[in-house]
Amino acid sequence: VQLQASGGGLVQAGGSLRLSCAASGRTFTDYIIGWFRQAPGKDRDLVAFIRWDGGSIYYSASAKGRFFISGDNAMTTVYLQMNSLSPEDTALYYCATRRVDSTKWDYGGRGTQVTVSS
């Protein structure tokens, strides 16, 4: 699935951003859609994922209570609403997919940079 992440930017600590992940040419049916982030010099981390039908949602410990993942009705776009941002959230964010019966993520697209100033 070809993916396009957008919505990043520069925000002050405590602010909010909403990231979007759009599927090109198809829907997310039968997929799990995840948001990952990677800061310079650090490992890639899974932030959240959602099953295409909304039947399963996961948040990392750092995201829980601040970030919210959702999809549009047509399930062609998945959003990550990020609230109460801190400088520790600064990273390149990108989305990925995997089929519901697979454990292999497909990182099919460029990310969007999120920078949080203190």
Summarize the structure.
With 118 residues, the protein is mostly beta strands.
Structure, described:
- With 118 residues, the protein is mainly β.
- The protein has a six-stranded mixed sheet, with no helix packed on it. The protein has a four-stranded antiparallel sheet with strand order 1-3-8-7, with no helix packed on it.
- It is globular, with a radius of gyration of 13 Å.
- The protein starts with a strand and ends with a strand.
Gyration radius, rounded: 13 Å
Uncertain parts: none
Number of helical regions = 0
What's the number of extended β-strand segments?
10
Q: What fraction strand?
A: over 45%
Separation of the first and last Cα atoms: 36 Å
Question: Mean pLDDT, rounded to whole units?
Answer: 94
What tags apply to this protein structure?
four-stranded antiparallel β-sheet; 118 residues; mainly beta; 52% strand
Task: Draw up the topology in text.
Layout: E1 2-6, E2 9-12, E3 17-24, E4 31-38, E5 45-51, E6 57-59, E7 67-71, E8 77-82, E9 91-99, E10 112-117
Parallel strand pairs: 2-10
Antiparallel strand pairs: 1-3, 3-8, 4-5, 4-9, 5-6, 7-8, 9-10
